[in-house]
Design a protein that fits this description.
This is Amidophosphoribosyltransferase. Its cofactor is [4Fe-4S] cluster; Mg(2+). It is a single chain. This protein is an alpha+beta fold. It folds into 2 domains: about 230 residues, Aminohydrolase, N-terminal nucleophile (Ntn) domain (Glutamine Phosphoribosylpyrophosphate, subunit 1, domain 1, 4-Layer Sandwich), CATH 3.60.20.10; about 200 residues, Rossmann fold. Helix content is about 25%, strand content about 25%. The strands form 6 sheets. The protein has a 7-stranded antiparallel β-sheet. Strands 5-6-7-8-12-13 form a 6-stranded antiparallel β-sheet, covered by helices on one side. Strands 17-20-21-22 form a 4-stranded parallel β-sheet, sandwiched between helices.
Length: about 500
């Protein structure tokens, strides 16, 4: 059954979650999405609720859960945060021992309830629910072919493509899913559930993260390991590229739908997206970001009085920079966590100085000081300029900007909402030109080699440390051009 309600009175005017993501007025890359699955726990809905809450940073537009005990599906989806979509009574009505859940930030699909996941369908073998994080690059081509042969799509989400491919197959569910996955190209982590089975799949390059854990006899799956820590589950391992896990009444079966290709986990997961208490490839994100900061200090030291990081993703790197240089780390910038998605449309004056609604410079810390400002990336440059000016207005005598990613020059096809390459400042301006644009005294980016050495860990011998660096160097791990219909952003 379904009972979907759009909460009333939570948004005003143009701020109805229209792709604003976590940082709204900030010129930041937007999160992808987050998936969480449970198989074999009597309170699967509650486990998934806590898991999705831990993944909230990956998507703030909508949340959803689909639960079953082997019979009919119970599901609920809504616009807003996990805590807004689900309350105690709602969770109590979602009875079952297996579930898949999703938090969404839309990029390629519209921001509306019909696109909220998990997507749920009726097909010849019963019910099918699908949740994904990532992007299907050739989805427009497949969708057009399916529509020409009679398929009717209910959403604008490209995730629906996989359901149609499965439904059209005459094979059993597992083999149909394999065939469907072999037809799509991109970066993705899928959770698929029928009345009696659950499938977990990772793309052949491992572009989008997904991991497995145990809690008693139950298996859990998550876009980030921080969700496992929340509920006390024991992390087992990452799902391997091209791997497909099948869970049914007989337990867990390891299978694969494709041979692993060049390993290429999204570098921006390390730099920005993942929570600092998560692990990627066995490496803690906080530690990895501290190593980025240390490497940044080795590559581009500048004499200064204080080091500060732009909250929240750059704090770890700023600590690493400070430790390497001996320059004190200080909280020079404070983030207001409560302006979020629901604030009333500001006046024109506040709009022009909108960064002040999200960040405040601590005058007593930066006044009269030479400041090193650590940030994770520069997209269009507008936010960096605002933050530099914020520090100057608070009395900083110098502001030196250090970025823990290489210059962001190219769009992402695998699940990150990036602007057209013409809007990416690094695609058309030199580092010196960007420095002038953001009003900094100096500007340096970490080198690609430095980034790889800081985060690759056990994958240091893999090509580019097992990272996708295409947004920096234009070296995409998959084909991206399908008759000129490249699909940007996140297909979920």
């Amino acid at each position: 059954m379904s009972d979907e309600v759009i909460p009333q009175g939570l948004w005003t005017g143009d701020y109805f979650n229209e792709g604003s993501g976590r940082d709204g007025i900030f010129d930041k890359l937007k999160e992808e999405c987050g998936v969480f699955g449970v198989f074999g726990h009597p309170d699967a809905a509650s486990m998934s609720y806590y898991g999705l809450h831990a993944l909230q940073h990956r998507g703030e537009e909508s949340a959803g859960l689909c639960v079953t005990n082997g019979g009919d599906f119970n599901y609920h989806r809504g616009m807003g945060l996990v805590k807004e979509v689900f309350d105690k009574d709602r969770l109590a009505s979602l009875i079952g021992d297996r579930s898949i859940g999703h938090v969404r930030y839309s990029t390629s699909g519209d921001s509306k309830l019909t696109n909220a996941q998990p997507l749920v369908f009726k097909y010849r073998d019963g019910d099918l629910a699908v949740a994904t994080n990532g992007n299907i690059v050739n989805a427009p081509k497949i969708r057009r072919e399916l529509e020409q042969s009679g398929s009717i799509f209910q959403t604008t989400s490209d995730t629906e493509v996989i359901a149609h491919l499965i439904a059209r197959s005459s094979k059993d569910f597992v083999e149909a899913a394999k065939d469907a996955l072999q037809q799509i190209v991109g970066g993705y982590a899928f959770l698929l559930m029928t009345n009696d089975r659950m499938l977990v799949a990772s793309d052949p390059n491992g572009l989008r993260p997904i991991s497995m854990a145990r809690l008693g006899d139950a298996y859990l799956f998550s876009s980030e390991t921080c969700a496992f820590e929340t509920i006390g589950a024991e992390i087992i391992r990452d799902i391997e590229p091209g791997e497909m896990l099948v869970l049914d009444k007989n337990g867990l079966h390891e299978d694969r739908f494709a041979e692993p290709q060049r390993k290429a986990l999204c570098a921006m997961e390390y730099i920005y997206f993942a929570r600092p208490d998560s692990e990627l490839n066995g490496s803690n994100l906080h530690s990895s970001r501290k190593r980025m900061g240390r490497r940044m200090a080795q590559e581009s030291f500048v004499d200064a009085d204080v080091v500060t990081g732009v909250p929240d993703s750059s704090i770890s790197a700023a600590i690493g920079y400070a430790e390497q240089t001996g320059i004190p780390y200080e909280l020079g910038l404070i983030k207001n966590k409560y302006t979020g998605r629901t604030f009333i449309q500001p006046s024109q004056e506040l709009r022009e100085q909108g960064v002040k609604m999200k960040l405040s410079a601590v005058r007593r810390v930066v006044e009269g000081m030479r400041v090193v400002m650590i940030d994770d990336s520069i997209v269009r440059g507008t936010t960096s300029r605002r933050i530099v000016n914020l520090l100057r207005e608070a009395g900083a005598t110098e502001v030196h900007v250090r970025i823990t990613s290489p210059p962001f020059k190219n769009p992402c096809f695998y699940g990150i909402d990036t602007p057209d390459s013409r809007e990416l400042i690094a695609s058309s301006k030199s580092i010196e030109e960007i420095r002038k644009e953001i009003n900094a005294d100096s500007l340096e980016f970490i080198s690609p080699e430095g980034l790889i050495e800081a985060v690759a860990g056990n994958n240091v011998n893999d090509y580019k440390g097992g990272l996708c660096m295409a947004c920096f160097d234009n070296d995409y791990p998959t084909r991206t051009d399908f008759n000129g219909e490249e699909q940007f952003g996140c297909s979920c």
